[in-house]
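Two proteins, back to back. First:
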Amino acid sequence: MKHAVLVAAMFLGMGAAVAAPAPVEDIASGSSDERIARLERILKAKQQGEFEMQRRVDALQREVLDLRGVTEQQNYQLNQVLQRQRQLYEDIANLSTKPTPAANSTVATDPVSVAASSSTLGETASYEAAVNLVLKDRKYDDAIPAFRNFIKQYPQSSYAANANYWLGQLLFNKGENAEAKTAFSTVVSQFADSNKRGDSLVKLGMIAEKDNDIPGAKALYQKVLKDYPNSASARLAQQQLSAING
């Protein structure tokens, strides 16, 4: 990309030279004062041309940096969407491959009813119902007890890390930071291999900021940068650190 900027700058410089060529003068004739004056005019014209070229290069570099920032932000948002979709597809695939008990061929959709079931089908359906309350129905207050019931019923589920993260996010959005902190801390301490651990560390850092624990927030963001470099979580952590440092 730097090479592209330099090439563009060269063309811009050539354009500037064509548009405003340096004056051509015979510096050999005339008195010494006249020759010096002509040299000074030529030097001044050259310096102005170089200044104009540098100004245009700087403008191009700023545009490239702005475009890079927009691209990174869009990539982060796209990764978040794809991650949510991938999780939902996995949930649906798992649900469709599980055998339905003969005594009950209809799966309950109410989160509380589903959480009461101890079967594998009940586990998947319970999690899916809680997620759908967020993504499809936008019933955020109803989703909180649904995720709590799921976590209580299936604490060792393969969906437990995600369920705790969802619960923490919903509570965080409501400003219930103490309970949100508990949910995010559960992901960090109990699910080291979860793809939600980095995001949970970032959210814990944000909660620390809200609690005016700036050193604690910085430590959490730096941990994300160390443990999950080049990830979407790391980019968000870096943004938070930059905002703190001003």
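And the second protein:
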Amino acid sequence: MTIYTTTNSSLQKPGVLTRIGSRIGLVNWLGFITLLWKEVRRFLKVPLQTVLAPMMTTILFLAIFTLAFGGSERYVGEVSYASFLAPGLIMMAVIQNSFANTSSSILISKVQGNIVDILMPPLSAAELTLAYVLSGLARGLTVAMVVGIVMWLLIDISIHSWVAVIYYVISAGLMLSLLGMIAGILSEKFDHMAAMTNFVIMPLSFLSGTFYSIDRLTGVWYQISHLNPFFYMIDGFRYGFIGTSDSSIWVGAVSIAALDILLYIAVWALIKSGYRLKA
């Protein structure tokens, strides 16, 4: 019996075949799913902090602002203020938690020095990016479902367009997960991350029409509001609930999709180059 052996020692190294396969369009599914599940389990292991705390904060916002602005007697257009406010608060929770999931994961790995455990396996930059992004989206959707169920029990909310609701919550979760990755990669310590959250994410969230209709603004402030991508997320998502919007749903859908693509390319390039990831 003849035994054939290969003389190409490089093919005997673990992961080489996977890397070769990646170059011809194949995906390292095992590595991708493992990283994705690791990131999902990271926030599922502390649900009190990652799911229940955002839910409680959002419900408190709903209660305080509804009472402050007249309760059930206040209307925005043809819907009650509570029904108008609820979709914006759900989307704000998605924005904050999707961003927090990816940004904290990357920054903590860098600070603790175990980011090398993510970079060494035979995973391409595209696979790494997608795994992190989907984990951030998973956290955002989990919080959105929990908050939505609680709000449905407390106030009168209904779905006008499932297509709009699903599209905008997914596209928004993807965008903030990508922004979180950029923030995590660029930040070198937690102060940098706090600055990004407090001076960029929070202001854009609160000034995006979450608590009010953009139509109440006039002049230059009205125009500036339409430059805020968070406005289109909340406006489109709210349309899925109440059937009315402050801007074109199609303009918002295309704008968010284009930003998602550009942000994905930016994150892919950063991971590909190893900028502030490799020592």
